[in-house]
Amino acid sequence: MSALICEVVYRGIFQKNLASRITRGIVLSARKSGRWGIAFGRYGDSPQRNGIPAKDFAIVADTKEELEQNMARYEPKHVDVTICVDDTLAKGVESWAWYGLQPINRLTLPNGTLLMTSLQPFEDLLRDIHKKDEPYTLAVIRARASFSGLWVYKEDHTEVRILGALAKIAPEFLTLDGVCQAIGEMEWGSELKVASVRKAYERLEARQIQPGEGNAEVPYAFELPRWWEMREGVTIPAIPIGKPKEGGKGYVPERNPYFKKFTTRTMRPVVDFDTCVKCNLCWIACPDSCFDVMPDGTFDANMEACCGCGVCEAVCPVESCITMVNEAVFEDNASQWDMWRKDKTAYKTWLTDKITNKKATVRSHGFRFRGQYEEEIKTDLDAGGAEITAGIPGENAKHKTI
Amino acid sequence: MAVATKTAPAVAEDRELLISGSEAVAEALALADIDVVTAYPIRPYDTVMQAIAKKIANGQLVAEYIVAEGEHSQFEVVKHASTVGARVFCGSSGVGWAYAMECLVVTPPLRVPMVAMVGNRALDDPGAFGVEHNDALFVRDLGWMLVWIDSSQEALDTTLIGYRLAEDRRVFLPLAISADGAFLTHSQALTLVPPKAKVERFLPPYNRGDLLLHPDNPITVAPQANEDWVIEIRRQNNEAMARAVIVIEEAYADFRTIFGRGPENPWFEEYMTDDAEIILVGMGTISLPIKVGIRNMRAQGKKVGLVRLRWFRPFPTDRLVAALSKASVIGVIDRDYSFGSPFGSGVVANEIRAAMYNAPKRPPLVSFICGLGGREVTLEDVYKVTDLCYNAAKTGKSDTKTHWLGVRE
Amino acid sequence: MPETTFTNATQVLEAFKGIKKVTIEEYFTSGHRTCQGCESALVMKLMVKAAGPRTIVLGSTGCMYVANTTYYTTPWVVPWMHTQLGSSGAAALGTAAGLKALMRKGKMKSEPINVIAFCGDGGGADMGLNGISATLTHKEYNSLILLYDNESYANTDIQLSGLTPYGAHTTFSPPGSVKRLIHTRWKKNVAGMLAAGHTECRYVATVCASFAVEMMNKVRRALTIGGPTFIHSLDPCPKGWDYDPMLSHDLGELAIETGIFPLYEVDDGLLKYYGKTKAIVEGRKRKPVREYLLKQGRFAHFTEEDLAYFQAKVDEMWEKWEIPGVVPFKRLEAAKAALEVK
What we know:
The structure holds 3 protein chains of 3 kinds.
Chain A: E1 3-12, H1 13-31, E2 36-41, E3 50-61, H2 64-71, E4 79-84, E5 108-117, H3 122-128, E6 136-141, H4 158-169, H5 176-185, H6 191-203, E7 205-209, E8 235-237, E9 267-271, H7 281-285, E10 291-293, E11 299-301, H8 311-315, E12 322-326, H9 336-342, H10 344-355, H11 358-361, H12 372-382
Parallel strand pairs in A: 1-4, 4-5, 5-6
Antiparallel strand pairs in A: 1-3, 2-3, 6-7, 9-12, 10-11
Chain B: E1 15-20, H1 21-31, E2 36-39, H2 46-57, E3 64-67, H3 71-83, E4 88-92, H4 94-99, H5 101-110, E5 115-120, H6 134-137, E6 145-148, H7 152-166, E7 175-180, E8 188-193, H8 196-202, E9 219-221, H9 230-259, E10 268-271, E11 278-282, H10 287-299, E12 304-309, E13 311-313, H11 317-325, E14 329-334, H12 347-356, E15 365-369, H13 379-395, E16 402-404
Parallel strand pairs in B: 2-3, 2-4, 4-5, 5-7, 6-7, 11-12, 11-14, 14-15, 15-16
Antiparallel strand pairs in B: 1-8, 6-13, 10-12
Chain C: H1 39-51, E1 55-60, H2 63-66, E2 80-83, H3 88-104, E3 114-120, H4 121-127, H5 129-135, E4 143-149, H6 190-197, E5 203-207, H7 212-225, E6 228-234, H8 238-242, H9 248-257, E7 264-267, E8 270-273, H10 275-281, H11 290-293, H12 304-319, H13 332-341
Parallel strand pairs in C: 1-2, 1-3, 3-4, 4-6, 5-6
Antiparallel strand pairs in C: 5-7, 7-8
Helix pairs in contact in C: 1-7, 3-5
């Protein structure tokens, strides 16, 4: 191997700065052992959106010529290492209309590595990660997804942990000392961060994944039309008007079949239909029109359309009627209302199990108040930055107002 | 010997009026029953808007007449009116056309069959009213159809043909009709105005069909596209421009049948070219001094002819190559400039050089720039052009120098 | 000319009497690529929900174009068309004029069709202001121009616009070690300016989607009253303002409760404050602006001095303006009187 190609799959704005630090870090670390490199983002993803999956790349090579060999394309077709800094992306990635659902490991080469930050056991991750025909390594750093917005960065050491892990995965390109040296020189570097690099290097967990191991689902895909099949005048058909849910009652909007957006979701609303007072607030306030109106006047968040912003929880006047729960604990996009109608007791059990799971309801999706991040990560940094489990200080999932 | 476009004798029901090129266009717009027209003042094109305003005030035309707050809005307003099915007209000159540039760019991909008049005018600075063709040529690469006219009659006829052509579902592209400032926009000539009945036989109503923006045809128009789509959309536009070639031939043929006049060859006018040794090429009203000059020179036995190019987009490559290959020397007179271009030539000269590249017979070509900023093109200029062409004929080589005529030196 | 039954009438859209009476159908559905918690996407949804199916929407360049309506990623049920960044005014005017011409000439079935053109704060308050101004003087054409204001060029990477608040962090105004605040201009008073400057425009309103039903009813009023009308909507933007997307709704409420963005309508020459702004005018205490500002990362660099300046400017709007929140200057004698009181 004379070149190392890495992709970082990240959550748009939430991780734009993080992803850029990682790819820059890869190049500058490899430079310490005399390698050439380039860091770039997939231009089509810009401007990034909150949550919508995007990609950055870093390529390092022994010589400039080898670097150019691997740069001669808009997006690498294969990567040695896929870096994923939010484990809910394990369910797949849909960046644009017609891209379909792309498995997180789609570009990962045979015997390549999928490097993730996650608190989930390997088994749980493999329920989401689609199977491949070739073996690869799944490497995990025990940490929560690190989300912060454009302006205030969350200094939780995620970027340096990834680089420390890469020193373990591709030592021939990123030596541990090289990474530490590079981090030390970064404007955002520090002694504590160098310590985190070494800890990540030591604590990296890895497992060989066999062909066929993983989620057996066949992801939906589309074939792009040819120029003469496309409508003229840059026109496309509008979305048809929706129809009643059943028996002329309720209402289900028609939805765009080419871009479902649910892979943008990191948390999903869990609705308690027994306590719903049918106030319509979640339905009216949803920017993605994801609530289907049920015949009984309750509202079912359509999991093909919901992108998980959480506004519905914020506007719901009833305690715990709508609770945002981490996407990782769900198996499918099935209708909650259908589940509830089928067996109300079973649904109550299912719901209670989900919304009382503090690890799954903990939230940290960007800035809420000045000083928040420092409080969030304090304990973790004292512990050497091995695990990030905190959410919003003192609030966790219990925040319906600000 | 081929003769210039003959104007057919006035058919009984035609009215003969003494009108300027701008007024002739306005007559055509009333006959075409346009629905929305937007105006903004700039010389010389605005004479057409003054003429339309009168017609609307006198009830000779029923249309929404909107005076915009700038050319940008002026062109956007008619663009949008056209997408809901309205027949529209617009126009500008010089830097006004430049100010509208963003809106000129979007009409071809949106397939908006707008007809616009460009009163050709020099670009600032300095502010100048006189003719130069650089303004209309801004859009030569963008999917606009470009035609140059040289008489009031041609102004009227080309406007009617223009709507028939632009609104053909196979085309749906915007058309700019270029009229030289002053020479055409401000001078009046005897012009035949046909009756409405004839026009209705020639020009069907504008039907936007599946591209109509209306609640009965819910579509999304011009959503933002990433690299997965854009080149296919450009490819579609290229196809539309290619189809325009066929539709132009059809439209002129029908025009001749119905109105009893109009050229056999839509693309360019050939004047005394059959036996010509020297063929001069130009666009617009420059044809007048050249034709007179040719007649005088022929009296002295010099075999000179003129090809007056009407259609610049789509460019009549094959027919033009065939016509020019007959000559022993081609002299191209540009009323535009293209600083730093190959040989420092004007746009038309280099376009013809490109067209001739694969021609089996490639006569020497001499290129000239003259008449900029409305400077008169004199008979002396025409004689000088011809002499320089004869020099090239002697050597048999193209003259790689571009000659500026009528400049104080 | 064929017979035509054309009248310049508009659709009569009665106000929704409460959230339960709101149209159930969606004319803007999912399929867009906007951020999680995008308030502007919500504005689009409510705007057409209020307008109904016989509506044409024109969208000028911006987030609600690029993110909201990407090729084959359309959320629109009603006909929608892009227009250039500065062209919302021309788009509304041209579409309305085209429909009117065809209807009065009998070339199209005569019916009132709503025409709505939207623009962002950049397209509306910066580049497109002259076009909007012109359209608001064309009283014979029925159209609504809705400005969705997320207070930056949020699509192109969050650059400051004429409606970006004082001191906010944008990619064109990054706080630096030497210069803490690069953007020190105060936000334009767009609705007030347009209401005051266009005497034949019969309806101008400010709205916030956090108050959904009222927002929709302003849209319905604007479309019903006829002629060119204008609505300015303040839209919290989780991306550019830097906050947890879950809080979009709450920040909208705070913008009103702090008095930073007043809610009012100028209906046929009559000014009416409404909602929580009405309460403020009637004496309810405004929340301190810091409660709003410090919940957004774009103001995280603010010092106490910056917060005080911002508060003072907002106080001035309520205490010193001739018409609080609407008209910033004061009549001389009134000013004198004010001085004498002191």
